[in-house]
Amino acid sequence: MVSVALLSRWHVHADDYAREAKSNPSLSIQRVWDEDPSRGEKWAEELGVRFEKELEAVLQDPGIDAVIVNTPTNLHKEVIMAAVAHKKHVFTEKVLALTTADCEEIYEAVAKAGVKLTVSLPRLTTNYYLYAQHALDQGWIGELTSIRCRLAHNGAVPESGNVNGWLPPHFYNKDQCGGGALIDLGAHPIYLTNRLAGPAKAVTSIFQQSNERNVEESAVVLVEYDSGALGTLETGFLSYGSPFQLEVYGTKGALLIEENEIRLTSRQLDQEGWATPQQLPEALPMPMEQWAESILNGGETTITKEDVCSLTLINEAAARSNAEGRKVSISEVKEVFLNQ
C-alpha cells in the first residue's frame, strides 16, 4: 500500500485524481496540504483525513510515500523538487513545469533520488491513440505528411450568473497558469501529435485573447516535424459542442477520429473507400494506475520523459512565436536551456 498526500485542490482535476486514488486499492490518501489553507481544510474534512498547513511537515513525514500535485502550475517545480528531495514519489497534473530547463532539472533530481515521477497525459492510454499508432506502425498510412488534432470546450463562455464561464477564475491568471488554453487544454493535442509525428523542428502559432482576460482563449499552432510532416493543433475555451478530432494523413492512407468514431482508408488494405475498424486495441491503464504499479513493482510507465519534456518544449516555442509574430525553431528554445 502506498500512502499518499494530496498537494493542493487548485486544479480542476484535483477532485478527479482524489477519486482515482480512493478507488485504487494500492493507494491510500493520508494527508492534505494546500497553499490555500481554508480550501485545504475543507477538502481534508470531505475526505476524512488530516490537513497539514506546512508542506515541509508533510514531506518530512516518513509515513507518506508519495504525493499527488495539483498546485498552480508556477509552483510545480518548487513543490515537486521539495517532494523529490524527501524521496517521495510524485504524480502531477500536466504540464510538469513552465520551461524545458525546469523539466530537465526535475528529471535529474528524480533520477538521483530514485523515485517515480508520472505526469498525467491520459490520452496516450486511450484505444483510439493506440489504434492511430498501430496504423502508422503497420504502414497503412504510408509516409506521414500531415496531422491535425483539435480539442476545445466552452469553459470561458459567460453563462448566467458567471461572467467567467464554468472554468475557475484562477485559470485566467497568467502567472499561476503560465498561459491560457494552449498550456492547459491544448496540452492533449500537443503530446498526442508529438508521439505520432516525432521530434519537432519549428513552431508557428497564433493566440486569440479578449480584453477581459490576461491569457489566450483560443490558439492554433502549426508544427513542422523533422520527418517533413506538418501538424495543426487547435484548442480553445470558447467552443460549444466542439468534438475531439484527430486526423492522420499520409502517402498511402488516412485516419479520421472524431470522439468515438474512427474511419480508415488505405491503399495497403484489401478495402475500398472508408472502413470502420472492427476491433480496437485494449486501452492501457490510466496514468495514476501505472504510477502506483511502478512504485510497488518497479518498471516504468508508458508516459516517458520525452513525452513530458517535448510537451513543454512545444508550449515554449508556441508562446514565443505568438509573442514575436514569427516562426520559432526548436533549436532556439533548446539553446536557451542548454546554456543555463
From TrEMBL:
Start and end residues of each Gfo/Idh/MocA-like oxidoreductase N-terminal domain: 18-119
InterPro entries in the record: Gfo/Idh/MocA-like_OxRdtase_N (IPR000683), Gfo/Idh/MocA_Oxidoreductases (IPR051450), GFO_IDH_MocA-like_dom (IPR055170), NAD(P)-bd_dom_sf (IPR036291)
Listed name of the protein: Gfo/Idh/MocA family oxidoreductase
SUPFAM superfamilies to which the protein is assigned, alphabetical: Glyceraldehyde-3-phosphate dehydrogenase-like, C-terminal domain (SSF55347), NAD(P)-binding Rossmann-fold domains (SSF51735)
Domain of life: Bacteria
One function term, GO molecular function aspect: nucleotide binding
UniProt source species: Fictibacillus marinisediminis
Residue ranges of every copy of the GFO/IDH/MocA-like oxidoreductase domain listed in the record: 129-255
